[in-house]
Design brief:
By secondary structure, the protein is α/β, with parallel strands linked by helices. The chain has 11 helices and 13 strands. The structure holds nicotinamide-adenine-dinucleotide.
Length: 333
């Protein structure tokens, strides 16, 4: 079972699981935060596979395609693993009134999924957490305590705390803290997507927040899907919380240079002051993923960016719209 199956990361995970021979049920409510047509396109390969079933439903319940608790438990019954990726991502939209959606989609929905997984006696839940739970502390190397600096980070950390609560009830949950994910199908609010579009004829201008020296650990989506799949079954990963990082922390300026080289055109830039909630650097801890998942990242940044550029060049990736209007997002995850 993959929740958020039509999203950026979820759709890659579905394809990986299908390629490994699994039966996969995907749940997604096609949240219009960004164009649902893009999400439908993400599932093109999966829906052509007879071992894939799509449930178009809202994990929060509610009147519009809402999955009530019994239906959710029925859906989860028989699943070996629930990969819980559904949620509302993005840092900047979590400020102000936007936070209500983050509470609903990241906190309430996660509690409902754990509750149903417990009732359905699911073998393992893998929870998609985020480097945002660290705030500024992941950059220091030493402390690495959780101290989010955005409401989004708080909502993802709440999902980790709920995991702790349901572990006590006997549910096996593994939390993965993804560090800024990129690659084909990247969400339209994310930096690399915006950068590539800002090299294109008639594309929008990229809003650079700060001086471009902010560093992020960028992680290719194929590597993230592989780590997530491993977390579903590896006995060592039971109950663990693990950083999933691409291997090196790179300044946004360097990314801009790489994007310009790959696209063969300059990025149109507009500079604004740094945005609240964007930490100056994120750095993953790599040893736990190696030890507990037998995983390490395999895609270097330049090759990964080239794979994303190839996707942007396809007609199906053409949608530029960001329903949220969060054009100031720097490196949201
Ligand atoms: N992309 C990153 O860099 C990154 C980094 C850290 C953590 N994460 C986490 O990974 C997960 C996937 O992120 P993504 O980038 O693929 O985002 P995404 O928005 O592309 O995918 C999330 C999917 O969940 C679905 N969804 C949301 N609420 C739902 C609900 N109530 N019921 C059913 N479906 C629902 C959406 O329609 C969407 O298709 C999220 O939980 C996000 O917080 C992502």
């Amino acid at each position: 079972m993959v929740t958020g199956a039509a999203g950026f990361i979820g759709s890659h995970l579905v394809e990986l699981l299908l390629a490994a021979g699994h039966e996969v049920v995907g749940i997604d409510d096609f949240d219009p935060w960004y164009d649902p047509a893009v999400k439908r396109a993400n599932l093109t390969a999966a829906t052509a596979n007879a071992r894939f079933t799509l449930v178009d439903g809202d994990l929060a319940g509610g009147p519009d395609r809402g999955l009530d608790a019994d239906r959710l438990t029925d859906l989860l019954t028989g699943a070996d693993v629930v990969f819980h990726l559904a949620g509302r991502p993005g840092v900047q939209d979590s400020w102000g009134a936007g936070f209500a959606e983050y509470v609903e989609r990241n906190v309430h929905v996660t509690q409902r999924v754990y509750e149903a997984a417990l009732a359905a006696d699911v073998g393992r839940v893998v929870y998609a957490s985020s480097s945002s739970v660290y705030g500024t502390s992941s950059a220091t190397g030493g402390d690495r305590s959780t101290a989010p600096v955005s409401p989004y980070g708080v909502s993802k950390l709440a999902g980790e705390h709920l995991a702790g609560v349901y572990r006590v009830r006997g549910l096996s949950i593994t939390s993965l803290r993804y560090f800024t994910v990129y690659g084909p199908r990247q969400r339209p609010d994310m930096a690399m997507h915006r950068l590539f579009r800002a090299t294109m004829e008639g594309g929008p201008t990229f809003v650079l927040r700060g001086d471009g020296r902010q560093r992020r650990e960028f992680t290719h989506v194929a590597d993230v899907a592989a780590a997530t799949s491993a977390a579903g079954w590896r006995p060592e990963a039971d109950g663990a919380t693990i950083d999933i990082g691409g291997g090196s922390s790179v300044a946004l300026r360097e990314v801009i240079d790489l994007v310009e080289g790959i696209a063969g055109a300059p990025v149109r830039l507009r500079s604004l002051p740094v945005a609240a909630g964007d930490p100056p650097a994120t750095v993953a801890e790599h040893e736990s993923a190696r030890r507990l998942l037998g995983w390490e990242p395999a895609t270097d940044l330049e090759a990964g960016l080239a794979s994303q550029w190839a996707w942007h060049a396809q007609p199906t990736s053409a949608d530029p719209s960001v329903a949220s209007g969060s054009d100031s997002s720097l490196v949201a995850d």
